[in-house]
Design a protein that fits this description.
The protein contains six helices and no strands. By secondary structure, the chain is mainly α.
């Protein structure tokens, strides 16, 4: 598993492998259920994660959106869109989480 996964997540998956596999299958089915491409799906999920103030989900969907071809500018716009719907404090928190992921990915790209 990638080293950026929280220990609690890895531990849960290890303790309940059947549940984790079922969750993975459901996620794949939901992602494939409509016409949105992977990049768009990840950007939408990023907005949902921001709205729920889910730190780990914001970080995960930033990574996945970038891997799916989203630009940093596109990811930043999704986070910025949160201001008028979710509010300034929630958006600034998500901005921090997003920035840490982007900075980390740029350091990896330079290595």
């Amino acid at each position: 598993m990638p080293d950026h996964l929280p220990d609690v997540y890895v531990g849960f998956r290890s303790r309940f492998p059947d549940v984790a596999q079922s969750q993975d299958a459901l996620a794949q089915a939901v992602d494939a259920a409509g016409p949105l491409d992977e990049k768009t799906t990840r950007l939408v999920k990023l907005g949902i994660a921001l709205g729920s103030q889910a730190d780990g989900a914001v970080r995960s969907n930033v990574r996945k959106a970038l891997a799916a071809g989203a630009t940093v500018a596109e990811v930043e716009q999704v986070v910025l869109l949160g201001i008028t719907t979710r509010g300034f404090p929630a958006t600034v928190a998500a901005w921090q989480w997003m920035s840490e992921v982007v900075e980390g990915s740029q350091e990896t790209d330079q290595a």
